[in-house]
Structure formats: structure tokens, C-alpha cells
Specification:
By secondary structure, the protein is an alpha+beta fold. About 55% of the residues lie in helices and about 15% in strands. It is built from nine helices and five strands, in the order H-H-H-E-E-H-H-H-H-H-E-E-H-E. The strands form two sheets. Strands 1-2-5 form a three-stranded antiparallel β-sheet. The protein has a two-stranded antiparallel ribbon with strand order 3-4. A hairpin with a 5-residue loop joins strand 1 and strand 2. It starts with a helix and ends with a strand.
């Protein structure tokens, strides 16, 4: 029905025809249709990631009381998209995320090797005496938690913790039809 298509479109950011096709494929099952669209969106986002994103905006979030500021540089492909409400809203949400959660890096690829080595060394006591077969899994689990706490794209989105910041950006890629990239961020705090 049109209501189902509209609901699916709102929850996924996909186009009307894509939503209709996904619902037809799944005989109206909203969850399965959303999963199909998410998979398609990820494929589309991967293709878009190769395109140059040189336009965009610098967004600043100032916490009430002016004691905390988050700044993010968010790029897209065209100045037209950079001026849309959806793009501006995404930039604002990311600046707020930076202020609230204080990430150190954009993605896990940005974490320096020496920091990773130091982090892994700190897990040595936790894995002492454990069977060798599970040591690597324990270390990987702890590293994943470290990335979630320190890398912006890995963090749960503060307005909807069921998704990561990376999911939010990919959803915006799909919705706006452009490659969107977080270039830089900074966080300033009084006394910090």
C-alpha cells in the first residue's frame, strides 16, 4: 500500500520505486524490505565513496552555557546538496556528537599503530591464562569496544543508539544521492 511505501521510505531514506519493489519482493514484509534496501544502500554508498567530495560546510555546535563546542567539516559533491536542510541537519548532528561523546579519530583506519600496540598491550593481564584459541577473539572484542568509544564513525549515534554514526552518514549518502565524507572535527571545552 502507499502507506507502507511511505513508512518504508521515511525509515530508510530510499526512493519510492525502490521501496515499492522491495515491498513487492518481500510480500509486504517491512523488516525484510528494509533489509533489502539497506543492502542496496550500502552497495550504492560504496560506489559513491569513489566520487570526489569537495563541497560542504563547517558546522559548529555550541552547548548551552558556552562551555563546550563541537566543530565538524562535512563534505559532499555539490554546493546544492551542501545547502539542503538534510545536509545541514546531518552536519549539526555530527557536531553535537563530537561535543557530547569526544571521539579522538574519525575511523578505525585513523588510529595510529603505536596507539593500537599500546592498547593491545594493556589487554595482556585480561588474557593471561586463557586458552590460546580464544585470546585473539578476546583482544578483537576489546579493540572493537575501543574503536566504538574513540572513533566517530563507530560510535552509537546519540539521537538513535540503534545505529552508528557511520550508518547515519551512509543513510544520508543514500537519501541525498551523493558521497558524504567527514573530513575533520574538533572539540573544545572550558577547562579541558
Amino acid at each position: 500500500t502507499m502507506d507502507q511505501i511511505k513508512e518504508l521510505r521515511q525509515s530508510t531514506g530510499a526512493g519510492v520505486l525502490d521501496c515499492k519493489k522491495a515491498l513487492e519482493q518481500t510480500d509486504g514484509d517491512m523488516a525484510k524490505a528494509a533489509e533489502i534496501l539497506r543492502e542496496k544502500g550500502l552497495l550504492a554508498a560504496a560506489k559513491k565513496a569513489e566520487r570526489q567530495a569537495a563541497e560542504g560546510r563547517v558546522e559548529v555546535y555550541v552547548h548551552p552555557g558556552n562551555t563546550l563546542v563541537g566543530v565538524v567539516v562535512l563534505n559532499c559533491e555539490t554546493d546544492f546538496v551542501a545547502r539542503t536542510d538534510d545536509f545541514i541537519s546531518l552536519a549539526h548532528d555530527l557536531a553535537m556528537q563530537v561535543a557530547a561523546v569526544a571521539p579522538r579519530w574519525i575511523s578505525r583506519n585513523d588510529v595510529p599503530e603505536d596507539v593500537l600496540a599500546e592498547e593491545k598491550a594493556s589487554y595482556a593481564d585480561d588474557v593471561k591464562g586463557k586458552p590460546e584459541a580464544i585470546v585473539e577473539r578476546i583482544i578483537q572484542g576489546k579493540l572493537d569496544k575501543f574503536y566504538e568509544e574513540t572513533c566517530l564513525l563507530e560510535q552509537p549515534f546519540i539521537k538513535d543508539t540503534s545505529m552508528t554514526v557511520k550508518d547515519l552518514v551512509q543513510q544520508s549518502n543514500s537519501l541525498l544521492g551523493e558521497n558524504i565524507v567527514v573530513r575533520r572535527f574538533a572539540r573544545f571545552e572550558v577547562g579541558g
